[in-house]
Specification:
mainly alpha, two-stranded antiparallel ribbon, 2 strands, elongated
């Protein structure tokens, strides 16, 4: 009886929290506190998602996946099947997955193979109105200006000693685009995936806090008071709406083929929405498909965030670089907005430049909120959606550039 109780005790998570096997011998785990720290971090993220509403659709699955990854003795995910620390470019161990893999191992294949980010972009395309961008193509310049944060973070990461592949993955955080950051990181720096994913989605959720001070610092009150009427946006025909996604896909694929998976699926989703003959596909992409992929993506990313990979000095560097990347991206978009304001002799409110980051439609809403605080009769939302959509395209193009130019 005593032996059975002892055996039962040794199978509990509490026992495995304090003891681990080394060369066949059970030894006291001196790093048990790191596991407790990770469980606490998961709890904080769950609170932020539920209690504060910070990007809950993705932050909650990521946080719960992180909790599952750090509860001792569960063993739901086998990172060694996918990531070899001695050889990060090693292929997936399909034999081990087939013989010993579980649910989370199979779900993680969607991250490792780059499936989930493209499907998320399909949903974003179906949910997003590209009309403001088509009506004012110059919005592309604002989206391009916001990519300054990507390359600023890239240079900063290189200066801090990260490899070019790791620096490129960190830089993409500045695009305010979680799926793109995941796609680049899983290919170029898989060991950093937990930290980069958490940083990217956390900062996306914090855009309403991060951006307004920078917007006020970089613009004058006179500029923030500029009123933009809906009449300044020309009508867009159905033909233009249909041609635009097809044309953008072809141009991007011909110039930067590595960006085609993201841009192509983004445009396909939008084409479903505007063509008028695929309403069922558009609704499926916006709802059922988006919700399913969001759950799979969030939990799959969170399950990789164990104490060994997350509690590392590089994580602090990534979080700091991510914040700087968002700040520089906002700054770059605002500067381009100010230039456009000057060129048009005060017809463009520079605040819409801050929406050049890829967080759709949150960044556009922030521009609207800040603008209305200065002038309650001003409605910048639709004008800001142009740069916002341009930012989605710009971040995907930046990812394609990194993937094309920086090999393993």
């Amino acid at each position: 009886m005593l032996d059975n109780l002892t055996l039962l005790w040794e199978t509990t998570g509490i026992y495995k929290l304090f003891y681990h096997e080394v060369n066949g011998i059970m030894q006291f785990n001196t790093d048990f506190f790191k596991t407790l720290i990770m469980i606490a971090i998961a709890g904080i993220l769950i609170y932020l998602a539920i209690g504060k509403g910070f990007e809950p659709l993705l932050l909650l699955p990521i946080a719960f996946g992180m909790l599952l990854a750090n509860l001792p003795g569960i063993g739901l995910f086998h990172k060694e099947f996918f990531i070899d620390p001695a050889n990060p470019s090693a292929p997936i161990n399909w034999a081990e997955i087939g013989n010993h893999g579980g649910l989370m191992d199979y779900l993680y294949l969607g991250v490792k193979l780059g499936i989930y980010p493209s499907l998320i972009f399909l949903a974003i395309g179906a949910m997003t109105d590209f009309t403001p961008l088509i009506a004012r193509p110059t919005s592309l310049l604002l989206g391009a200006g916001a990519q300054f944060g990507v390359f600023a973070a890239f240079m900063g990461a290189l200066a801090l000693g990260f490899t070019p592949q790791e620096a490129a993955s960190i830089g993409i955080i500045g695009g305010a685009d979680g799926p793109t950051a995941i796609l680049v990181t899983k290919s170029m720096a898989p060991r950093l995936l937990p930290a980069i994913a958490v940083a990217a989605y956390s900062y996306m959720a914090l855009i309403p806090i991060i951006q307004p001070p920078i917007m006020k610092l970089c613009t004058t009150k006179k500029e923030r008071l500029i009123k933009m009427d809906m009449s300044t946006l020309r009508p867009v025909s159905k033909v233009e709406k249909i041609v635009f996604p097809v044309l953008v896909t072809a141009v991007v694929a011909l110039i930067i083929p590595d960006a085609a998976p993201l841009v192509g699926f983004l445009m396909l989703g939008n084409l479903f929405n505007v063509c008028g003959v695929t309403d069922r596909l558009s609704k499926t992409a916006q709802n059922e498909l988006c919700n399913i992929v969001t759950i799979f993506l969030g939990v799959s990313v969170g399950i990789t965030a164990d104490a060994a990979s997350f509690l590392h000095p590089d994580t602090i560097k990534i979080i700091c670089l991510g914040l700087c990347a968002f700040a520089f991206a906002t700054f770059g978009g605002l500067i381009c907005g100010k230039i456009m304001c000057f060129v048009t002799r005060g017809k463009v409110n520079p605040l819409i430049g801050s929406a050049g980051v890829s967080a759709v439609p949150m960044a556009a809403r922030v521009a609207q909120t800040v603008g209305q605080k200065e002038n309650p009769s001003n409605f910048l939302l639709m004008h800001a959606m142009g740069p916002n959509v341009a930012g989605v395209i710009g971040s995907a193009v930046a990812a394609g550039v990194f993937l094309a130019m920086i090999s393993h």
